[in-house]
Amino acid sequence: MPSDAKPGTYTVLVKPKSDYYDTKSTTFTVVSTTTTASSGGWSVEPKAPPALKSAVNRFLGLLMFIGWAVVIGGVVAAAIMHVIGKEAPQILGRVIVAAFIMAFGVTIIWWITS
Question: What ranges do the domains of the chain cover?
Fold first, then answer.
């Protein structure tokens, strides 16, 4: 990268001298640049393509929905058992805690990556 590269989309075109080879090109994007004190140059921060980011966010959203649904469903089931005078099984409490930890963690990751 040149030291004076500006954010933007660039195309590199390679045209061979011989007719036996095809002309090739590629496009790349400089998304942000920062000056580093030690090198005095630029560093480029790559970003995920929008399609990949969208797919990851949808998957995280699904995990988040499942996690919070299990937490809410478990709490409701435990509350109903308490109201009718039965003791909730110990495994139900463990499932609620595990689902809460998973749902909370996925929610934080989803929030950071959005």
Answer: 8-44, 50-113
Alpha carbons within 13 A on the beta-carbon side of 6? 1
Indicate left, alpha or beta for 14 from its phi (over 0: left) and psi (-120 to 50: alpha): beta
Q: pLDDT tens digit string along 72-87?
A: 999 999 999 999 999 8
Over the stretch 5-51, which tens digit does the pLDDT of each residue have?
Answer: 788 888 888 888 877 778 888 887 877 655 554 555 555 556 667 77
Q: How far apart are CA 73 and CA 96, in angstroms?
A: 9
* Nearest in space to 112 (alpha carbons), one of 64, 43, 45: 64
